Amino acid sequence: MKKILFIEDETSLQKAFGTILKDKGYEVVSALDGETGLKLAKEENPDLILLDVILPKIHGFEVLKKLKEEKETQQIPVIILTNLEDMENVGKALELGAMSYLVKAQYSLEEVLEKIKKALGEL
Amino acid sequence: MLKTTLQDLNISAQCKKYDLSLWQCPHFFFVLMGVVMAGVISAVYGIGLHFLNDPQVIALIVLFLTGALFIITFVITQAFEKTAEANRLKSEFVSIVTHQLRSPLTSLSWAIEALISGEFGKVEEKQLEYLKILKENNSRMGELIQDLITVTKVEDSSQFKNKESVSSEGITKDLVFKFQPFIQGSNIDLKIKADEKLPQVLTVASQIKVVIENLIDNAIRYAKPKDGVKGLIEIFIFKKEKNIQFEIKDNGVGIPKEDQKYIFQKFFRSRNVKEMQPYGSGLGLFITKSIITKLGGKIGFKSEERKGTTFWFTLPIK
User: Fold this and answer.
1) B189, exposed or middle or buried, with CB in 10 Å at 0-12, 13-18, 19+?
2) Would you tell me which CATH number, out of the four given (3.30.470.10, 3.40.50.2300, 3.30.930.10, 3.90.190.20), belongs to the domain A3-119?
3) Domain B160-316 carries which CATH code?
4) Cβ pair A109:B105 closer than 8 A
């Protein structure tokens, strides 16, 4: 069973999307802030990280930067899942090593799940 | 231009626009500064004539007046900073609110989509009906938030700095292609007539797309086929003096005369349009006009109720 670390501070989205991912057959580990996200990335060794940008404690881009610096986590693919939609943030995320940048409000559930499957090599 | 200048000199109206009292308003202080400087120069000249043999007096007067000018300049700068800070806070507020509103809407949208798919259990017809109502209203809220975000962006001048050469015909054809399913579903004919070898325009492509999209979207919604007459939308793109002019003409419901002067206002929707489509943010044309103005163009329309509307806008040639 593939493991997904979902770093997102919005609890309603954690519940809704977390439940959907579990029902789709993934193991889901949740983090509500950047600091916990970094800690769990090292402890849980997930197959994929879904990362929000605006996070408490440590900003999403800072989390991404640290993930790509650490040996244990640098190979884990990261998909940015956010509602910030300016080109500057997109560019920055890809520069820091994100696999893709998805603006939540612009993607249907089906499209996001397809991106996740691709990232996990299931498509 | 004279009319605009005189309107700009209506200091009281300018200050009210920014919700500032006269004594906080940079426009007022600029005028005051101008008056003070004119007075100072006249006074120094007049006094100088009387005290020609006593230059220390003149020097003291000049020093005193310089000090006064510095104080006024300082107050003006403070007023500007407050206005700029208020603008920044407003944009930040809208950005935060819209970002925070989008997250729960995304949760709703994806959860509803998961339920409608039937993958997690059979959905009865009545349940499906209610889920579709939820989905539709969720989409409407999402569109309204998107419009509010666009309004904030339009009011941010930095969005209009990176201009590039753009083919007006190319952009229009791409957008029309995108609208094809909507056009066919609405039983409308759409024709594009562009002059040959149109020069390129120097503009911000992403913003022009928003303008053309808004106008085409409106034309499709309100080009209502009636009594067997098919809806028709014609797009004309041609060179006019130093500009490229776009015209989007429909044979639809038109805009009532009494509503025409409000058509570019925020949140305004004309009476007949509200009857046809109860839901809409009323921000589309406000956004469109703001963008065109910021890009150095002009926008207008002519319309007759029950006959149709032509919206036009110009963009300066590269």
Assistant:
1) middle
2) 3.40.50.2300
3) 3.30.565.10
4) no
